[in-house]
Amino acid sequence: MINSNEVMPLITFEGRVPSEWLDYNGHMNVAYYMHVFCNATDAFLEFFGVTEDYRQEKRCSTFVVENHVNYVKELHYGSNMRVETRLLGFDRKKMSYHHSLYNVDAGYLAATSEWISLHVDLEKRASCEMSDTLVCNLREIYEAQKDMPLPVNIGRSIMSWDNKS
Length: 165
Known about the structure:
This protein is α+β, with helices and mostly antiparallel strands. It has helices at 30-48, 52-58, 132-145; strands at residues 10-16, 60-71, 80-90, 94-103, 108-121, 126-127. The protein contains three helices and six strands. Strand 3 and strand 4 (94-103) form a beta hairpin.
């Protein structure tokens, strides 16, 4: 059973920007934003039951099929970071979730990332239904978070333009 106090907000990553994550512009390199979001995703999966034991026993896991990152404000060396994760929706085979990355010390949103993942049979390498336990855990998380304000940058896409100039 999920404790609703643990999911409001659901903190899935905490850390500090190390010097080796900086790029030639003096801020955190885009690859490390993705690294942080991947760590947050792993923590989210673990939280609702997609653990190593689950993967070994059920021979199932999740695969990311889409994600979008929006960079809002720079992170610099030594910045304390926190990721809050929000479950946006799910069914028996897939889920949509959103990560908000904050600079804790300065109190601002640094980046967001929206994800869609499929539950996958690792032997068939095809999507399959989640166990009842996982679905129940996701339902509890969703119910605990559903009245929270929606995070920013949901459903955004990359703009295209006409290059006729």
